[in-house]
Amino acid sequence: MGKSLTEIAQQLKSSNKKVQLIYAFNGTGKTRLSREFKELIAPKTDSDDGVEQTELARTKILYYNAFTEDLFSWDNDLEFDAEPKLEIQPNSFTQWVLEDQGQDGNIIVNFQRYANDKLTPKFNESFTEVTFSLERGTDEHSGNIKISKGEESNFLWSIFYTLLEQVVTILKEPEVSERETDQFNQLEYVFIDDPVSSLDDNHLIQLAVDLAALIKSSDFNNGRGLQFIVTSHNPLFYNVLHNELGLNNGNKKEGCYLLERFSDGTFNLNVKYGDSNRSFSYHLHLRQIIEQAIAENQVQKYHFTLLRNLYEKTASFLGYRKWSELLPDDKQVYLYRIIQFTSHSTLSNEEIAEPSEPEKQTVKFLLDNLVNNYGYWQQGEQND
């Protein structure tokens, strides 16, 4: 028998896990779940026993979802069709990270990592609006432009991520009296719903790795500290987070779920036991991405990251202690070093994305080794 979203939210709240990772298809109810969870943790009628506090100090949950976009709106200057700007509605969170913390520079850096290093935001002095232009590396620039919906989502995520970075750093100070601010002492939960709109695979992996690193760096001991709930409809984003957070290790794997909606309008939060559960078919998804890149001669450095994930998933399913044990014996050390170096260096902005021809052939060789030498893959093809 299914449950209501409120009951699902209560199930998430009752968990003592640091991270709960949820996969759901579009339209299942991820965003509504985030709202239900927020209302459960901090209902609008919560008056904190009448004690006068700032909005930040009352905060028990930070959440990123489609409603986050409501804080931003375009002034398109329809009369003259010029100087479009993104207006920021007054709120304590952007005010804190922009004015109090002066993090506008880091927001711009994060945004350009996920979008385009030539696409440059510029905040006004009061941080109530932002304009965008394409800088061409000379004194010339494009003038103010309206960015795409995907780029706008990336920009909003960059603000949230920069805010979250600051909050995690502050809360890592164990002595409450020593923290630079007491504004986040009551914060308990961070709910993140699909921050990967319109990202290509390379930037999507970057975002997932960054988020996983931030989550791992936050303090959580004996059920105390920040708890993260992350939902996504994107298999690659889910898979990278799953691996980077180590949710396939030991009992941690119980923090992975599939959100299902039934025809009667009820829901179920179905536990998924990581890599050994084939119902997600992430391994097949990764294989298809790599095969397509090889066929179209579009192999990039980030495909080594996908290839490593594929080896890790196969090794976990087959019971190997190390993924490198799947490599050909006569070239195991050599190929291990190539994958290690290339899959890690691809996350740096200073690396050139275009690999050499020998590197492209190495990707094909490594994929063929996995598919041709392990019966698990042939069996999977027969069952599909």
Report on this structure.
By secondary structure, the protein is α/β, with parallel strands linked by helices. It has 2 domains: about 270 residues, Rossmann fold (3-Layer(aba) Sandwich); about 100 residues, no CATH class. Helices cover about 40% and strands about 15% of the residues. The protein has a 6-stranded mixed sheet, sandwiched between helices. A hairpin with a 5-residue loop joins strand 5 and strand 6. Helix 1 crosses helix 2. The longest helix is centred in the middle third of the chain and has 23 residues. It starts with a helix and ends with a helix. The C terminus is likely disordered.
List keywords for this structure.
14% strand, 42% helix, four-stranded antiparallel beta sheet, alpha/beta, six-stranded mixed beta sheet, 384 residues, Rossmann fold, single chain
Summarize the structure.
With 384 residues, the protein is α/β, with parallel strands linked by helices. The chain contains twelve helices and twelve strands. It has a six-stranded mixed beta sheet with strand order 2-7-10-1-11-12, sandwiched between helices. The protein has a four-stranded antiparallel beta sheet with strand order 3-4-6-5.
Describe the secondary-structure layout.
Layout: H1 5-14, E1 19-23, H2 30-41, E2 61-64, E3 72-75, E4 85-88, H3 92-100, H4 104-114, E5 119-123, E6 129-134, H5 149-171, E7 189-193, H6 201-217, E8 220-221, E9 224-225, E10 227-232, H7 235-244, E11 256-261, E12 267-271, H8 282-295, H9 302-318, H10 332-345, H11 357-373, H12 375-383
Parallel strand pairs: 1-10, 1-11, 2-7, 7-10
Antiparallel strand pairs: 3-4, 4-6, 5-6, 8-9, 11-12
Helix pairs in contact: 1-2, 3-5, 4-5, 5-6, 6-7, 8-9, 8-11, 9-10, 9-11, 11-12
